[in-house]
């Protein structure tokens, strides 16, 4: 099989209008990236300007907050105990901002301890504060104030000698190389049955004997205990746990002796931070303590270091004792030391313009305590704001970079995976359109449009693949059609030339116009002239010119029925009418139409049944009916049987049927202004040929 060679496409030069959407698309991504970076810079500048504007106001707020906290009893406690650090337990006495405690009054003792904030707290809700007064002449005592939870308290009766059968406190004091231990059983002072239990803790020096046979109470040991009347964690009295508050004053002989020494005693003692106190609250019997101050879950009270949380970046707090005892305490505003600032971002922040750059600020105040006076200096530097912003901006820069990277990746994926492929497809489609507009034969305009290289698994790839397959099929079909048309043209020309000569001789042999053979020879000559020199039968039929003239349709049908046996069509019946029915038609072409339909009816009629012709008229049209008994036509094929090439048998060497007889009938009738249709009727099939009637 010969293959046609299609010319290459002429690719036109596309104007700017063809690229404006791609340019717009790229500009949108570029502007989006610029806007993202600009937004980050603008937000950073706005944050810097706002931070600078609020700098002085925030500095004053910090100053007020720090001074208020230092003047509060909890702050005074921290100032009086600057060196307290390290492990929380065993307990070390704190210097209270009070000369002494009203330890025998529950409300006063509890309020003083809570305001001072000296309590060491535990996860079970227990608490204890070990402290001394800030005035040596108020007595050399250590105060123990705290609380714990316990059930119904069992008190010691005056005659009881065994302290292990009652609730009791055990206290141990380690000081200057000596250890003193006390045991203090609970003695009820409230009446039995009262919801609020109160009593005292009578102190005895512990010598290892569980009985108090020879023991004498310590005169200056004082302790009091109060138990709440309500359950602390639900339940019913008296079996539920209730809050127990205690207040104890321990006599310290070393402190008392120092009062009478010369010169005036130093207070607080220099070795106060080396004193250790251990407190246990015990239930009757040999059971675990209800409270142990040496428990591992102890939480220390607030200290001066906690003030650094109130300082802003760039602010420094310096606390100096006026009597020059101890080193100054320096606290700086919190900075995210774990985060690192990018030098480039710090340079960017430094160059960002602001309306006003505040100068360094400083404030000095004096805090007076019963023990000493302290100079408190608060200073601020705006550069700390830049460092803080640098840390935040460095952290946020990763998000900005991620956004820019996402924008760039999205652009790259769309550009490479979609836009460039669309560009290639657009150029090739434009080349096809450009070549189709040229004045050239059809094969020269088609060209070589190949989009197979754009195939892929995505939407565009599937579209390009489908288009490539479709174009290939079109090219193959066009090549086959051109070859077939050329072959048919050559065949028809050869056959027409060979047939016309014998037909000319037959006309000489049958010169009489009344001879049926003469009529059939004329029909054959007309058919050959129609097909001769055309590319295909369908083209020849479409181009055929018919000579329309008045025709008596009744006489025409009678003659067709009478001469049908000459065409091999037996038993064709027609009942002639009494009056002529005039139509405008080409007699030869109309005879071809009827003959093709008769041949089709003859092939499908039941053996031994006739083919019946009928004629019906109206004012405007005449209808010829051709009926045969036999199998019905499928409903889906009633219209398709008139298409070219549709047949009930494949075209091969053994058959002459090419599926063009009914196509010829419809084509000729259309040229004569008529129609033809097929329909299934009871017992067979009927073809209706409708022609317009000629004027009388």
Automatic annotation (TrEMBL):
The keyword Transferase applies. Its EC number is 2.7.13.3. It catalyses: ATP + protein L-histidine = ADP + protein N-phospho-L-histidine. Keywords: ATP-binding, Kinase, Membrane, Nucleotide-binding, Transferase, Transmembrane, Transmembrane helix. It holds the Pfam family HATPase_c. Residues 494-695 form the Histidine kinase domain. InterPro entries: 2C_sensor_his_kinase (IPR050980), HATPase_C_sf (IPR036890), HATPase_dom (IPR003594), His_kinase_dom (IPR005467). It comes from the Bacteria. The keyword Magnesium does not apply. One of its GO terms (molecular function) is ATP binding. The chain crosses the membrane at residues 396-418. This is histidine kinase.
